[in-house]
User: Which sequence fits this backbone?
């Protein structure tokens, strides 16, 4: 019955539902429409759409997914590329009913275009500013990402850059993300820069336990008391071996950013029904639905909500609660959270009344 109701709600209910997106990588969020514009500007690269997106029903290994970003980065090698994709990504999230968005990206330098890591971030911030000036109904913030595959020295440079923008961006740059290929490097290498980030006042979200058998690294990084966890796919899968990890995450009420389509298409979970959303949701632990890379994985946040509703038999009220409780886990200040909660309360009566 609940599944039938969920299907009956789609897609309008999920698109109209006000949503919070907290785990969205900028380059992975580039839509096919934007990618076509980039391809038209750089035909000499001969990069096809199948090289930068995974169609419906298709899957790739996690390693193949990371290889796709090499092609995407070739398409976004200039500050003007970063500006354009930032604006397009924000507009698309806004069109999908996202009211608050925390974009994340690793600053890159490109000698061919003269782009530096600083001008990369400046291009993102300019894109956010221009969207604000357009009057889009979305509040956008930015998290600077550390790519673990680049090593500790690069991480220290990124942390310093993020700290600078934390002070100069008027509340737009809020935190630091540790991400990148989980098979490369070890969390131990990043303890010092991550601690520096915390001392600087940056919020921390860490990709943890994306692949199996990383209990030691996860335990080490959890010692930093991160503000959020990205994925946490294998936190609870080794029974007694990781029970202490589950207990630690639960005790500290660390919210998990969960991305169903991403995990399914990257083959890190075997099926929708076996996704770890169910484990944490049944425990009453804080979870936030996210897209990860909406362009690469050909999804939208409204689809993620619909997927969860249908898979785990969630009611209108449960879906609304998932959306509204996500506000508690944004990195913005208490005033912003209060404003968002007021907005949700206003929208709730309107949306549910329309559906009746």
Assistant:
């Amino acid at each position: 019955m609940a599944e039938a109701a969920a299907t009956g709600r789609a897609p309008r209910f999920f698109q109209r539902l006000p949503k919070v997106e907290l785990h969205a990588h900028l380059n992975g969020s580039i839509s096919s429409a934007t990618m076509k514009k980039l391809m038209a500007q750089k035909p000499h690269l001969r990069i096809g759409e199948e090289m930068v997106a995974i169609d419906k029903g298709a899957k790739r290994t996690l390693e193949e997914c990371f290889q796709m970003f090499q092609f995407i980065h070739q398409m976004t090698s200039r500050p003007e590329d970063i500006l354009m994709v930032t604006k397009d990504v924000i507009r698309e999230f806004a069109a999908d009913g996202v009211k608050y968005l925390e974009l994340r990206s690793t600053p890159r330098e490109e000698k061919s275009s003269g782009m530096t890591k600083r001008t990369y971030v400046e291009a993102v911030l300019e894109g956010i500013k221009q969207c604000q000036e357009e009057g889009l109904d979305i509040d956008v913030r930015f998290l600077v990402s550390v790519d673990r595959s680049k090593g500790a020295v690069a991480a220290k440079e990124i942390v310093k850059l993020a700290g600078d923008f934390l002070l100069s961006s008027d509340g737009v740059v809020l935190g630091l993300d540790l991400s990148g290929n989980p098979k490369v490097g070890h969390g131990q290498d990043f303890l010092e820069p991550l601690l520096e980030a915390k001392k600087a006042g940056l919020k921390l979200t860490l990709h943890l336990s994306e692949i199996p058998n990383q209990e030691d690294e996860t335990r080490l990084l959890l010692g930093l008391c991160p503000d959020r966890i990205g994925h946490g796919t294998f936190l609870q899968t080794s029974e007694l071996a990781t029970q202490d990890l589950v207990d630690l995450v639960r005790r500290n009420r660390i919210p998990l950013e969960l991305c169903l389509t991403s995990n399914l298409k990257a083959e890190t979970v075997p099926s929708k029904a076996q996704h770890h959303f169910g484990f944490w949701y049944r425990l009453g632990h804080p979870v936030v639905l996210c897209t990860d890379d909406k362009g690469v994985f050909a999804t939208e946040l409204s689809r993620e909500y619909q997927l969860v509703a249908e898979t785990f038999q969630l009611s209108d009220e449960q879906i609304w609660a998932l959306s509204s409780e996500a506000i508690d886990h944004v990195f913005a200040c208490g005033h912003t959270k209060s404003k968002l909660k007021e907005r949700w309360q206003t929208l709730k009566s309107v949306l549910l009344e329309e559906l009746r």
Q: What stands out?
A: The beta strands are 19-25, 98-105, 139-147, 173-179, 203-208, 228-231, 256-258, 287-289.
